[in-house]
Amino acid sequence: MADDKPTSTSPEPAEQGTLEVPPPSSPVAEKETPLSPPLILTSKESIFSPPSPPVQEKETTFSPPPPPSSTTVVSPEKPITNIPESMISFKEESNRIKDLSDLERTSLTEFKQLVQEAITNKEFYFSSNSEEPNSEIKSNGSNHEEILIWGIPLLKDERTDVILLKFLRARDFKVKDSFIMLKNTFLWRKAFSIDDLVDEDLGDDLEKVVFMHGYDQEGHPVCYNVYGEFQDKELYQKTFSDEEKRTRFLKWRIQFLERSIRKLDFRPGGVNTIFQVSDLKNSPGPGKRELRLATKQALQLLQDNYPEFVAKQVFINVPWWYMAFYSMMSPFMTQRTKSKFVFASPARTAETLFKYVGPEHVPIQYGGLSVDYCDCNPEFTIDDPAAVVTVKPTTKQTVEIIVNEKCMIVWELRVVGWEVSYSAEYVPNNENNYTINIQKPKKMAATDEPVLSHRFKINELGKLLISIDNPTSKKKMLLYRFKVDPLSE
């Protein structure tokens, strides 16, 4: 290190290729890693609540989402936006320099100086005797070498600030500890051959266990972790039965994460974190030793080498036994970590997801409308917004769409869990006061198709009425969207 650098921020030089261990830090990093397996929950952070009591309500009318130019709406109602306080306590920090505090800017400057010195001194090599440089150290055609992480060169542009801020936040802006973490991450990436792993073909056996699907309301990509898939005994044995298989699972997990991270935007103000959803329905219990071993190993690697990549961690279909684990672990976690966690019982899974992810982005199996780009419904995609309306117990509610031109109108709707009656009619603007029945009242059972689609040709201006009659003692969520195609003259 240069003699004029402050000794309070510069670590002592270590032998190249030696993993350095920083002083013990808070357990926050352990629970803020991406794709973390389900280990803990707490009743303190729970959003469980009893169903609403039966209430007799008058028939009410609601409006659809923002309509095309050929329609107008009546009595607009806002989608669900009231988020419990415990669910909005974490606010993702800005990565723009102007938004940092003086202390944070100073720490970032000192951190960048240490990184520059490390590059000059070739401290990011795996060992001083290595004839082959780190796979993420590239020659740029000059005497200087380019150091990359997640495909991004360090100290070349403003994306470096975003990366270094992740390590700083993981270590509470302690520069020395952050530098040790970064250096150890580079050495681990070389030892694990990350660049080669990214392009390796590891098969598609686990594509239903972890997958990306859609975006949340702030633009974060959403990653689903479906642990119930491991109830398949053949898949479980194929994944965890011996150390070799567990190692392969770990490699697949890291590969999936690496590929996902490389699609993020690391510019200040860009989206550089992931929205995590962990589905615990039919999740193997704590008695599965092999899964426990693989989980522990994965958590250790993720917490050490992938800091601050989780925007929010939502657990859905939470079983009772999971709460006990979280209750035991909660005292050892920081409030920052717990503020990222949200938990929902099976009855509130869809409602909870819709607070963060639009229903057009939520897969059908979780109460949404997204069918993952297949031919099931060519009329709508995730780019077509949907509205969410709460249908109170023992209430009939109507969506009214006023049509201002001759057209073909197409709509789709879903009531999560059904157990309601659905009807639709068209009322033309004329003096005869007649209506056209499009769908007579039809009782919908929970086992019926989750999403209904209808189209209707409109030759007379008027209004479309879509009605949901909820005879149950539980509130229901109606999802719907529509579009119009003008008729040619």
Structure description:
By secondary structure, the chain is of the alpha+beta class. It has a domain of 130 residues: GOLD domain (Jelly Rolls, Sandwich), CATH 2.60.120. 24% of the residues lie in helices and 23% in strands. The strands form four sheets. Strands 1, 2, 12, 14, 15 and 17 form a six-stranded mixed beta sheet that branches. Strand 8, helix 7 and strand 9 form a beta-alpha-beta unit. The N and C termini lie far apart (78 Å).
Secondary structure category: alpha+beta
* CATH architecture label of the domain at 60-82 and 380-486: Sandwich
Q: Determine the CATH topology of the domain at 60-82 and 380-486.
A: Jelly Rolls
Distance between the termini: 78 Å
Average pLDDT metric = 81
How many helical stretches? 10
Using DSSP, what is the number of strands?
A: 18
CATH class category label of the domain at 60-82 and 380-486: Mainly Beta
Strand content: 15-25%
**How are helices and strands ordered from N to C?**
EEHEEEHHHEEHHEHEHHEHEEEEEEEE
Cα gyration radius (Å): 27 Å
CATH superfamily of the domain at 60-82 and 380-486: GOLD domain
